[in-house]
Specification:
Radius of gyration: 16 Å
Shape: elongated
Number of helices: 2
Strand content: under 5%
Oligomer: single chain
Helix content: 55-70%
Distance between the termini: 11 Å
């Protein structure tokens, strides 16, 4: 895991965070659980897409499963 960067969220990001917490009735654990499930779902979708797409279609590009 990479070192943690301390970057303040922008106003838009702060509003998104507040919206996620409000949706989960301020339960941070529930919010994190939902976000982790979203990550799992998106990784599965990315794996399916990678398998279905030809290398020529993407000109050699391959998806990355981790942040750079």
């Amino acid at each position: 895991m990479k070192a943690e960067r301390h970057i303040s969220p922008s106003d838009g990001e702060r509003q998104e965070i507040e919206a996620v917490l409000a949706y989960h009735k301020e339960d941070a654990r529930a919010a994190i659980g939902t976000l982790l499930e979203d990550i799992k779902h998106l990784r599965r979708q990315l794996a399916l897409t990678e398998g279905a797409m030809s290398r020529g279609m993407a000109r050699g590009w391959r998806p990355s499963y981790d942040r750079d």
